[in-house]
């Protein structure tokens, strides 16, 4: 209520100060509602000014409790967090229903004890029905509705940076996004990248659940991603980078060109990379004359210290700014289903007040059956339906990898034909990404991503975005180009 105007707008018609059982909380709620009534928004940090104004009227105990509340709020980083307002509104409505019923039952029983049967009956039947405010009828061509539509469209919940984000587009709460790829192509790394980008760029509280990776391995992968300046064993690390075809074939005549000669042999093949090769990749036109730039890739080598416990000082900085937005959990293979996951998320919310806006599950394929004895296609279909349902119930973006068929190992582009086990999973997702990589591209640190299904935008299965990777140092998206 202090932080979110959207939340106040959702609950204003149902809230009753009598629902609060603590007197000091009731006072703060009253201040907030008065502020909202006058200014049409939540008070935010102005709640501290309101407190200073109201403090002389408060009991000493209430003043101390409210002060502690505001201090905790200020230290919690919640002002910089993308709060899951749809889910919190659902929970608030459930709380209001519970309190309305409790109050009605208490009053009814009290009247019955006094033998005031008619009054008790009236109290019982007059119980207020609490409902979430539903969308009302609108005039879609009015100025207000047109402006509102484009304001909503302009709000991005999640999107990757750079050309990768431009290609894949934005993703929203309540969506289920799958990642299809052959064995050992980096599906888990990409799923983790969703978490890192969501936390760092959009401040989305995110949980990462693994159904196959031990806890320590999960942590180590995350540490590598967050501290890219350290190599696996120290020494020279080679990274892929973008270059220009005209730079490599020596046809560029621009003065800005970084290299004085190309790197193609007499047969037109690229030379084998060596740090000692007197050649510099060039992307000047990429930034300044995009129409003149034709991308290709090359390499750069960087001297880096060894990856060891010395990274802890850098992780402390990350933890200070983003640690409150990440939680992880690991289950043994085939030991948990969505009922178990939902229960553990609810425990997390109750114990830590951690409400996820993004849920990453690695991966749905190896969940236990939702119902005893269910196997095969029925089990797969139920698992993917449960994933879609979980995304909707928690109003969260849910990401999960899934294995492609064996034929995808040798395919240039992974398509719907390479969907493993049950193709019906494509009907349950808002989008299914594909990871495309030939053996030569793997050697070059290239991954091509595409949409093999998308409910909300046009797509072509043969249209891809090129992403540069160095997975030994945990870097999934060094750069990207369409």
List descriptors.
482 residues; alpha/beta; Rossmann fold; 3 domains; two-stranded antiparallel ribbon; 11 strands
Structure notes:
It contains 16 helices and 11 strands. Strands 5-2-6-7-1-8-9-10-11 form a 9-stranded mixed beta sheet. Strands 3-4 form a two-stranded antiparallel sheet. Helices cover 40% and strands 16% of the residues. It has helices at residues 5-11, 23-39, 47-54, 60-75, 85-113, 117-125, 143-154, 162-168, 187-202, 215-226, 245-248, 284-288, 312-322, 338-352, 376-393, 439-443, and strands at 176-181, 206-210, 235-244, 295-304, 326-330, 358-362, 397-403, 431-436, 446-454, 465-470, 475-481. The protein is of the alpha/beta class and 482 residues long. The chain has 3 domains: 5-125, no CATH class; 162-230 and 308-481, P-loop containing nucleotide triphosphate hydrolases (Rossmann fold); 235-304, no CATH class. α1 packs parallel to α5 (85-113). It starts with a helix and ends with a strand.
Task: Describe this structure in a few short sentences.
By secondary structure, the chain is an alpha/beta fold.
Series of secondary-structure elements, N-terminal to C-terminal = HHHHHHHHEHEHEHHEHEHEHEEHEEE
**Termini separation (Å)?**
43 Å
Strand content: 15-25%
Number of helices: 16
Stretches with pLDDT under 50, minimum 5 residues: none
Spatial extent as radius of gyration? 28 Å
Find the count of extended strands (DSSP E, 2+ residues). Answer: 11
Strand order of the largest sheet: 5-2-6-7-1-8-9-10-11
Mean pLDDT: 89
Largest sheet: 9 strands, mixed
Helix content: 25-40%
The name CATH uses for the topology of the largest domain is: Rossmann fold
Counting structural domains, the number is 3
Structural class: alpha/beta
- CATH homologous superfamily identity of the largest domain: P-loop containing nucleotide triphosphate hydrolases
Shape: elongated
User: What is the CATH first-level class name of the largest domain?
Assistant: Alpha Beta
Assembly state of the chains shown: single chain
Named at the architecture level, the CATH assignment of the largest domain is 3-Layer(aba) Sandwich
